[in-house]
Amino acid sequence: MTDEAPVQTEHADPQTILGRMGDGFLALDGSWRITYANAEGQEILRASTSDTIDDIEGRNLWDSIPESRDTIFFEKFTEAMAAQEPVAFETHYRLVDAWFEVRAFPSESGLSVYFRDISDYKELAQERQDSLYALQQLYSISSDGSKDLATKANELLALGCEYLDLRNGFMTRIEQGEQYVVHSAATHPEVQEGSSCPLSEAYCKRTIELDELMTVVNASDEGWRDDPAYDRFEFETYIGGRLSVDGEFYGTLCFADTSPQRDGFTDTQRTFVELLTRWLGYELERNQAAEQLKRERDRLDDFAQVVSHDLRNPLNTATGRVELLREDTDSEHLPPIERSLDKMEQLIDDLLTLARDGQKVKETSAVRLARTARTSWTVVETDGVEFTVTAEGTAVLADAERLQQVFENLFRNASEHGETVAEVEVGVLDDEPGFYVADDGVGIPTGEREQVFEPGYTTQNDGTGFGLNIVEDIVSAHDWHIDVTESAAGGARFEISGVEFVDGSQ
Asked: Residue 226 belongs to what domain range?
């Protein structure tokens, strides 16, 4: 065996170690002279002054950078030396336009200062905060039921411009090769609301070909210089998505600016534009559906007016003639005619009720169930049927007149089966807020319970088939729910739930 020479290990001196640090480091003596600065520290100091400083060490910190006396650095370093306690803080140092995390450790001979550049972290945190705010505002604006589509669209476009830091936000309708701006929050004269241009001269001609967002961050560098769209708008930055309504192409949602986007669009910004595009598509669908519903409601109102006037007048004439005939003759043909006329009058009443009762209830009050049920019972012909109410003292929030119509139609439905119904009961549900109307008749077979609410469904020769359909419409107009089950006696039981019980009377 041979003896091996010991390995010589070279230990780096402290200044070499500090010089290799990515963070800045300064050592100051008790007179604020710089006794040492690593490479990063020297770079920060040189960037803080307009004077050329070749030799950092030995210079007074505050004299070298006079502006620093008015900063948090002077305040905190002085505090640390006076109290002989370490200090730590974060600040934006405007002289080098950067954020720093600073820690200073005092001693009797001076101060050791560590700088960490946290600008990237601060920028990321600010981006997250801005994104969270934008998404919160997106939800707040889009869920505001007091605003119409145009108001919401304009506010959301303005929000998008602010969040993306672009000056133009607009929504288009594209048809027959033409682009029309329907909503706008823009400074550019060519994308104001109501303006239009051939699709061939718009950036959107490429957007509509994609299933995802189209982005341009520097049009001049991305081959747009010779494009007609660039000649017309001169947009250097653009982000846009395709708008669809009910699966059909509608137009685009776009944000743009005449200045390039320095860093491109973040994933969160792209997600924001995608969410906004989808929401506007959904809102357009809902708006079109509401307009279609209004047109159908208007046609139904017109029909109701025709029914009320053009049918009721000849019906009244026929009824009057039958009464005159009864004075002159006792013909066996008169009773069937009278029954037919009565059925026609009931049918007209039901049609008029249907035209009104599908509309949402706008005004409600506290209505006593028992009192309303008893009043309704007196209106319906229910000879020989016993009536029981077990809802004394219970009041519900409802439209009193339309609630009475519910009871009348349910009682009339029971009376149409008069040969089998001997008792009708009204009471409150045991397991949830609501009430029921039950009878002891033959009941409704399970397979037919969904059909009973369909218009025209009836098992009686003299029934109109609209009574229970009217009940369901009125229940739905209150945002309630109705089910058909079997009563304790084996008959029909109609349960109405989702009702709000309140104190009060009417």
From this structure: 124-290
Q: Is residue 1 part of a domain?
A: no
Q: Determine how β-strand 214-216 pairs with β-strand 237-245.
A: antiparallel
Phi, psi for residue 20 in degrees, rounded to 5: -85, -5
Cα dihedral value 497, 498, 499, 502, nearest 10: 130
**Percent with pLDDT over 70 in the chain:** 85
Of 364, 410, 362, 415, residue with least CA distance to 386: 415
Helical (H) or strand (E) element with 179: strand 178-186
Which residue, of 102, 117, 132, is where some domain finishes? 117
Q: Range with the lowest mean pLDDT among 22-31, 45-54, 64-73, 189-198?
A: 45-54
Give the pLDDT score at 367.
Answer: 94
Residue 358 has pLDDT above 80, yes or no: no
Contact between 500 and 361 (Cβ < 8 Å): no
- The span from the CA of 444 to the CA of 493, in Å, is 9
pLDDT of residue 504: 58
Written in H, E and C, the secondary structure of 415-463 is HCCCCCCCEEEEEECCCCCEEEEEECCCCCCHHHCCHHHCCCCCCCCCC
Q: Where does 375-430 show beta strands of DSSP type E?
A: 386-389, 395-398, 423-428
Place of tokens 């029934």: 463
Residue 483's nearest CA partner among 441, 442, 434 is 434
Could you tell me the maximum CA-CA distance found in the chain, to the nearest angstrom? 149
Per-residue pLDDT tens for 119-130? 888 877 777 888
Backbone angles phi, psi at 134, to 5 degrees: -60, -40
Helix/strand/coil for 125:
helix
Q: Does 102 reside within a domain? A: yes
> Is there a contact between 205 and 229 (Cβ–Cβ < 8 Å)?
yes
Whole-number percent of the chain with pLDDT over 90: 42
Contact assessment for residue 319 and residue 271, using Cβ atoms and an 8 Å cutoff: no
- Between the two ends of the chain, the Cα-to-Cα distance in Å is 114
CATH code of the domain containing 46: 3.30.450.20
| Domain count for the chain | 4
